[in-house]
Specification:
The protein has helices at 3-12, 24-36, and strands spanning 39-40, 45-46, 51-52, 58-60, 65-66, 71-72, 78-80, 85-86, 91-92, 95-97, 110-112, 115-117, 122-123, 128-129, 134-135, 140-141, 146-147, 155-158, 163-167. With 169 residues, the protein is α/β, with parallel strands linked by helices. It has a single domain (3-167), classed as 3 Solenoid (UDP N-Acetylglucosamine Acyltransferase, domain 1), CATH 2.160.10. It has a seven-stranded mixed β-sheet. A hairpin with a 4-residue loop joins strand 18 and strand 19 (163-167). Helix 1 packs antiparallel against helix 2.
Length: 169
């Protein structure tokens, strides 16, 4: 069965059922996503209503989880490390419009950039990660933050646009 068919089946069926982390349904989700995602680690937890473009550019590390109603716009690569917590309704974007002044925005080429999320990272509920951002190991992204630039290791960032609040002790 092709990856596209499996993606559609996943998004239309099993993706819509709530489940607990260690349930048989979550194991079935992982088996299906293993055929769709570029890479998926062990002991992952993917909550219901996840949305993604194709899945083929998503790598999800070991012991990581994606919260309910999150959206991974995987036109370019999205690399999610090990032990990452992604809260509910998180958006990770990999494409943006060009913004040259001498052309209509709608006429410009899209700009594609990967997103890399290190190990031991927490993305708070409704945070937004923009294209080209690298989030360092151990970082914490506050709920509702809009991350427009790289985040250093162990930094806690928040706000719109996100700024460093402090570093993890």
């Amino acid at each position: 069965m092709s990856k596209n068919i499996i993606s559609v089946l996943y998004l239309l069926t099993i993706n819509n059922f709530p489940c607990t982390h260690r349930s048989k349904l979550n194991i079935l989700k992982r088996i299906m996503l293993k055929k769709v995602f570029k890479k998926i680690g062990y002991n992952v937890n993917v909550r219901p209503y996840l949305k993604f473009v194709s899945g083929k550019n998503i790598s999800l590390g070991n012991n990581s989880g994606i919260g309910e109603r999150s959206f991974l716009q995987d036109f370019a690569e999205i690399k999610i490390g090990d032990n990452v917590l992604i809260g509910d309704q998180v958006t990770i974007l990999t494409v943006n419009h060009g913004t040259k002044r001498d052309q209509l925005i709608r006429s410009q080429q899209n700009e594609y950039n990967q997103v890399i999320i290190g190990n031991d990272v927490w993305l708070g509920t409704k945070s937004i990660i923009l294209p080209g951002v690298n989030i360092g190991n151990g970082a914490v992204i506050a709920a509702g933050a809009v991350v427009t630039k790289n985040v250093p290791e162990y930094a806690l960032v928040g706000g719109v646009p996100a700024r460093i609040i402090k570093y993890r002790a």
